[in-house]
Design a protein that fits this description.
- Keywords: ATP-binding, Lipoprotein, Nucleotide-binding, Transport.
- This is Lipoprotein-releasing system ATP-binding protein LolD.
- By secondary structure, this protein is α/β, with parallel strands linked by helices.
- It has one domain: 3-Layer(aba) Sandwich (Rossmann fold).
- The strands form two sheets. Strands 6-7-8-3-9-10 form a six-stranded mixed β-sheet.
- The N and C termini lie close together (9 Å).
- Bound molecules: adenosine-5'-triphosphate.
Length: 232
């Protein structure tokens, strides 16, 4: 993967301020289909804001965001919401599982929201547990899971609907380094196996090293850092 051709998702000259605070000052980023991209950079440089713009969560003040040739920044909220639900998966620093639901219900949730019936959705959800080393934890609630287990459940939830793009914002940020490494390995395996494109915000070099490519965000702009692996 080169990232320069067949871009699946692209930010062009994206500018966004929060009131008087500029977060993005002309960010350009192109992610190829099937590519695993790590987004690094200092705290406050605009990494999360860029991810949120690319994922159609935030709308830039100016510039363009394209997904599969479509202008995400021009979509109205219902269309962006549908895009997020049907094509994107999300993992955040703190898994943000619904505490009232069991682990398997959490994983099934995006499928249920997408219109799947409860039985097949739960069956699909359960299929992810052995793959992510979560056997036997299907019926637990988030309060009964360790941080690493909860992040793996969050990963299963993000992947269960087989998204085109997985957006992960500091997916290992709340974990100790060994647990974080294991979660990252599972994440990379899962996205590669499914041919999912992944955009992973991290400030851990070890996490970024698992990606196909790294870019650096500084002062709201993107600079290329490394283009190394050619992908499977
Ligand atoms: N909701 C918000 N309201 C006001 N300012 C915000 C908001 N979100 C982000 N910012 C500001 O925008 C800038 C970029 O923030 P962003 O969260 O994108 O950085 P980041 O690189 O992801 O940082 P970190 O690594 O610390 O998570 C920062 O100056 C931040 O304070």
């Amino acid at each position: 993967m080169t990232g320069s051709t067949t871009a699946l998702i692209e930010a062009r000259d994206v500018v966004l301020s929060f009131g008087q605070t500029p977060a993005l000052r002309g960010a350009d980023l192109s992610v190829a289909a099937g590519e695993i991209l790590a987004v690094m950079g200092p705290s406050g440089s605009g990494k999360s804001t860029l991810l949120h713009c690319m994922a159609g969560i935030l709308v830039p003040d100016s510039g363009e965001v394209l997904f599969d040739g479509r202008r995400v920044d021009r979509m109205r909220e219902p269309e962006r919401s549908e895009l997020r639900r049907d094509r994107f998966g999300f993992v955040f620093q703190f898994g943000q599982l619904v505490p009232e639901l069991t682990a398997e219900e959490n994983v099934a949730m995006p499928l249920l929201l997408g219109g799947a019936r409860r039985g097949p959705a739960l069956a699909e959800a359960r299929g992810w547990f052995p793959r992510l080393g979560l056997d036997g934890l299907e019926g637990r609630r988030s309060g009964e899971l360790s941080g690493g287990q909860a992040q793996r459940v969050a990963l299963a939830r993000a992947m269960a609907a087989r998204p085109d793009v997985l957006f992960a914002d500091e997916p290992t940020g709340s974990l100790d380094s060994l647990t974080g490494e294991q979660v990252m390995e599972l994440l990379v395996d899962a996205v590669r196996e499914n041919g999912t494109t992944a955009v992973i915000v991290t400030h851990e070099a070890r996490v970024a090293a698992c990606a196909d490519r790294e870019v650096m965000v500084r002062d709201g702009k993107v600079t290329s850092l490394r283009l190394e692996r050619t992908g499977p």
